[in-house]
């Protein structure tokens, strides 16, 4: 009985949410969807091999789904700067539909600083991973912490400056790592997931911490490259 009442309340609540916050396609404005089929078809997917220079030597492989332009650019802008949290699920579905998902033991989000998280209300990488984890049945864990609130990497053009900006800004989540290694073992593969990649410096810094703490292989997966 209590379960039925709970489901009715949940149903009414969902209807109210849809009335108060109706959703529209972020690209063309079509009602009832955040990304309509027509706009989805405009996305330029590409098979991509990232130029793995010496400066991103901690990453074993990088997979990028599409270019940072058009519909994808609007999607990410609304996600990160207008805090439309449900876009995380759409991004996860785009990635899942277009990537031959590599086998791995764990998904790990790129952390953001707690000040940035409280301002935005969520960590965009974690929101993508929550949905990806459901789609792939691969568990996820916040294995990394952002110690310093650094400038946005996207606002810095010079590659050297980007690396200086990130230096010593990430750390391992001490309370999670030993438990995770017991579960997945030392021969484990982890996928780091991010929305946008530029030079790969952020992924590389995070991969360095993971490898220094016992993870064997790290794959970087991003929706788009800028
Ligand atoms: Zn549309």
List the main descriptive attributes of the protein structure presented here.
binds zinc ion, 226 residues, Rossmann fold, 4-stranded parallel sheet, alpha/beta, single chain, two-stranded antiparallel sheet, 6 strands
Summarize the SSE layout with pairings.
Layout: H1 2-20, H2 37-40, E1 61-67, H3 70-81, H4 87-98, E2 106-109, H5 114-120, H6 124-136, E3 144-146, H7 159-166, E4 170-172, H8 174-184, E5 189-197, H9 201-212, E6 217-225
Parallel strand pairs: 1-6, 2-5, 5-6
Antiparallel strand pairs: 3-4
Helix pairs in contact: 4-6
Written account of the structure:
Helix content is 43%, strand content 15%. It has 226 residues and is of the alpha/beta class. It has a domain at 47-66 and 102-225: Rossmann fold. The strands form two sheets. It has a four-stranded parallel sheet. α9 links the parallel β5 (189-197) and β6. The longest helix is centred in the first third of the chain and has 19 residues, at 2-20. It starts with a helix and ends with a strand.
């Amino acid at each position: 009985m209590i379960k039925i009442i709970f489901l009715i309340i949940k149903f009414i609540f969902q209807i109210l949410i849809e009335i108060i916050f109706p959703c529209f396609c972020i690209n063309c404005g079509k009602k009832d969807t955040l990304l309509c089929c027509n706009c989805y078809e405009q996305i330029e997917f590409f098979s991509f091999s990232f130029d793995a220079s010496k400066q991103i030597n901690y990453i074993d492989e990088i997979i990028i789904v599409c270019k940072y332009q058009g519909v994808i650019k609007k999607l990410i802008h609304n996600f990160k700067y207008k805090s439309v949290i449900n876009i995380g699920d759409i991004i996860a579905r785009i990635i899942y539909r277009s990537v031959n998902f590599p086998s791995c033991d764990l998904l790990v989000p790129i952390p953001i600083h707690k000040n940035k998280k409280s301002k935005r209300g969520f960590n965009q990488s974690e929101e993508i991973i929550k949905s990806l984890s459901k789609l792939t049945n691969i568990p996820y864990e916040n294995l990394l912490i952002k110690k310093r609130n650094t400038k946005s990497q996207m606002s810095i053009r010079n590659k050297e400056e980007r690396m200086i900006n990130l230096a010593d800004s990430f750390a391992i989540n001490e309370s999670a790592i030993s438990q995770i290694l017991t579960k997945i073992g030392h021969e484990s593969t982890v996928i780091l997931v991010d929305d946008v990649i530029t030079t790969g410096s952020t992924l590389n810094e995070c991969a360095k911490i993971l490898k220094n703490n016992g993870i064997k292989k790290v794959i970087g997966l991003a929706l788009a490259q800028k």
